[in-house]
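Weekly sync, protein design subgroup
Attendees: M.S., D.O., the rotation student, P.L. (late)

Item 1: inverse folding check
M.S. brought a backbone from last month's batch and wanted to see whether the design step gives back something sensible before we order anything. D.O. pointed out we never logged the input encoding, so this time it goes straight into the notes. Structure tokens as presented (135 positions):
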């Protein structure tokens, strides 16, 4: 019984980080070859990811890729990348004892001043307060 309860708690915790692509069919994701791009973003959050790089993976022009990506995910590629970086930062704040500097490096944010500002914009908490109140 304890095992089931543990699984339930973990699913609740991680469901916040496993955001689904809203209102879009699997066929549109497959048709436009978006899944490898989403995976590429997830696997490379710690480094600079440019839209041109993602467009090249999808074999589209930069403008066409941006339109297709937004039609499928509901947000521009840059906004999606920031959202995923914030989600990774939330996860690291809750599951590790990493210092903010390490989290910034792991999530690909460019500066120590930008990270807390964008984190608070998306979560309504500073990183320290998020860890203290949610962790």
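Designed sequence read out in the meeting:
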């Amino acid at each position: 019984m304890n095992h089931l309860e543990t699984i339930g708690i973990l699913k609740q915790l991680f469901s916040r980080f496993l955001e689904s692509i809203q209102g879009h069919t699997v066929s549109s994701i497959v048709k436009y070859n978006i899944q490898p791009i989403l995976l590429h973003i997830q696997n490379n959050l710690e480094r600079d990811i440019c839209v041109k790089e993602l467009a090249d993976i999808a074999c589209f022009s930069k403008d066409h890729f941006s339109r297709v990506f937004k039609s499928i995910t509901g947000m521009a590629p840059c906004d999606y990348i920031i959202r995923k970086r914030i989600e990774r930062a939330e996860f690291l704040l809750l599951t590790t004892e990493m210092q903010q500097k390490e989290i910034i490096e792991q999530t690909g944010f460019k500066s120590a001043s930008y990270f807390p500002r964008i984190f608070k914009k998306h979560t309504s908490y500073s990183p320290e307060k998020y860890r203290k109140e949610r962790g």
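Discussion: Residues 77-95 form the longest helix (19 residues). Residues 23-134 form a domain with the Arc Repressor Mutant, subunit A fold (CATH 1.10.10.60).
Action: P.L. to compare against the previous round before Friday.
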